[in-house]
């Protein structure tokens, strides 16, 4: 294994694995830190953790355990993947994890770059944009777990670490990798070890990737990985082999636990012509809706690919959080989706699309998945995945783990279609 990646959530991990696979690295997504060695054929390994919204010291400990495993697999470079909307709180976890990884690698500093132009995330003068809005006006300021109320990534990171974060401005990025490297070294020499770097286009990201060729650690969204495979290819280290994707027909279901604005549109779109069941923390915590009732509903409509969702507008989420507490409400919903997913697979579902990073983590955990193979891309940042849970038949299942904000409004139809059709890697 050449490139070892640590992702702070599950949709993020498959987003990154998708980028690396498309850029020509033989990539595997691992669920948690594997107990044994990786397959020899794996050139990039992405360890998916669920550390985005847990206490910072636990996130650090889990990330260091992933680093130890990746080092033992022979990796030469490491990438810490977080969200392209920099999902975190003033208490962490991006800053503390990045610094702990730097210390463990004895490395002087690392880029910080959440940019993902294909989904509208760009960074200028250290400020993060989603489309034509600042991050703090993009809807992310009302995220249920990590409300992003400040678009200045240096300032946000500054709350999570001691000292200041650095900045490589876009004028240096535009001048190419030598200028980026020079600006980065100046920042690190001044004691600013976490260096935010502006980027607006994929070409900017490729130049940053080239500038990072000798760095032990790189941090960012999946876009930061765009230029990295080329560094390995230039050294003749890539095999150029790709795993074939095997489509699979069979009963399908959609689970949406994301409350992002795009998820709400996707749920509305899919509900138009599919059976759907809404769940809420209230219903789950009072016992008026249970996994058994939801399963009975799904079984009844299994031929029509039913949708079960807790996705709700910000006011409903705020009311549920005020009534039950933020974490209790989230845990009730996540536990529900995890258990329901396991029951659905047992009931014969072979195609499952999940909306939301934490929600996906709960589902993948409940299915006890170990490894995910990367298939074709459905929409930017979301590939079809193949997995073999013990609960499923010999052909396994096809899965999509969709970040809340990713995908077009008709994402779920496309996802289920693509799982059952052969589509070549572009
Ligand atoms: N109706 C709801 N009320 C309160 N919290 C909810 C509701 N529906 C989902 N949640 C919680 O909100 C969080 C959404 O996060 P996530 O699944 O990561 O979505 P996203 O990808 O949009 O961030 C999850 O922890 C989920 O359990
Ligand atoms: O970088 C991104 O935006 C995604 O890869 C990601 O991490 C998504 O997280 P969620 O929005 O919580 O699914």
TrEMBL record:
One GO molecular-function entry: kinase activity
Domain Four-carbon acid sugar kinase nucleotide binding residues, every copy: 253-411
Keyword set, alphabetical order: ATP-binding, Carbohydrate metabolism, Kinase, Nucleotide-binding, Transferase
Four-carbon acid sugar kinase N-terminal domain ranges (all copies): 3-227
Record-annotated membrane-spanning stretches: none
Catalytic activity as recorded in UniProt: 3-dehydro-D-erythronate + ATP = 3-dehydro-4-O-phospho-D-erythronate + ADP + H(+); 3-dehydro-L-erythronate + ATP = 3-dehydro-4-O-phospho-L-erythronate + ADP + H(+)
E.C. code: 2.7.1.217
Entry similarity comment: Belongs to the four-carbon acid sugar kinase family.
Name recorded for this polypeptide: 3-oxo-tetronate kinase
Organism: Orrella dioscoreae
């Amino acid at each position: 294994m050449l490139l070892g990646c640590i992702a702070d959530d599950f949709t993020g991990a498959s987003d990154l694995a998708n980028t690396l696979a498309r850029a020509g690295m033989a990539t595997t997504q691992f669920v948690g830190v594997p107990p044994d060695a990786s397959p020899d054929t794996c050139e990039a390994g992405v360890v998916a953790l669920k550390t985005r919204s847990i206490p910072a010291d636990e996130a650090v400990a889990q990330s260091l355990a992933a680093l130890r495993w990746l080092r033992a697999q022979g990796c030469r470079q490491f990438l810490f993947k977080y969200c392209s909307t920099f999902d975190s709180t003033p208490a962490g976890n991006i800053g503390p994890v990045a610094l702990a990884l730097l210390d463990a690698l004895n490395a002087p500093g690392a880029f910080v770059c959440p940019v993902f132009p294909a989904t509208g995330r760009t960074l200028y003068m250290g400020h993060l944009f989603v489309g034509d809005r600042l991050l703090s006006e993009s809807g992310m300021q009302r995220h249920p777990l990590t409300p992003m109320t400040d678009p200045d990534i240096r300032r946000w990171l500054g709350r999570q670490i001691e000292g200041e974060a650095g900045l490589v401005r876009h004028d240096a990025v535009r001048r190419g990798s030598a200028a980026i490297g020079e600006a980065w070294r100046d920042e690190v020499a001044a004691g600013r070890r976490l260096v935010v770097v502006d980027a607006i286009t994929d070409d900017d990201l490729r130049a940053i990737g080239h500038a990072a060729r000798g760095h032990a650690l790189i941090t960012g969204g999946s876009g930061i990985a765009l230029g990295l495979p080329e560094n390995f290819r230039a050294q003749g280290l890539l095999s150029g082999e790709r795993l074939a994707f095997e489509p699979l027909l069979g009963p399908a279901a959609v689970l949406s636990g994301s409350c992002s604005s795009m998820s709400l549109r996707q749920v509305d779109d899919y509900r138009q012509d599919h059976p759907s069941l809404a769940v809420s923390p209230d219903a789950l915590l009072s016992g008026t809706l249970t996994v058994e009732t939801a399963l009975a509903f799904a079984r009844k409509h299994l031929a029509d690919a039913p949708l079960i969702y807790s996705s709700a507008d910000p006011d409903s989420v705020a009311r549920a959080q005020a009534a039950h507490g933020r974490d209790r409400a989230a845990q009730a919903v996540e536990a529900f989706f995890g258990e329901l997913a396991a029951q659905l697979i047992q009931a014969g579902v072979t195609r499952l699309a999940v909306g939301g990073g934490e929600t996906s983590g709960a589902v993948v955990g409940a299915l006890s998945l170990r490894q995910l193979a990367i298939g074709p891309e459905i929409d930017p940042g979301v590939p079809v995945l193949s997995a073999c849970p013990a609960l499923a038949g010999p052909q396994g299942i096809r899965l999509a783990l969709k970040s809340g904000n990713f995908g077009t409004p008709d994402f779920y139809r496309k996802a289920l279609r693509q799982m059952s059709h052969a589509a070549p890697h572009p």
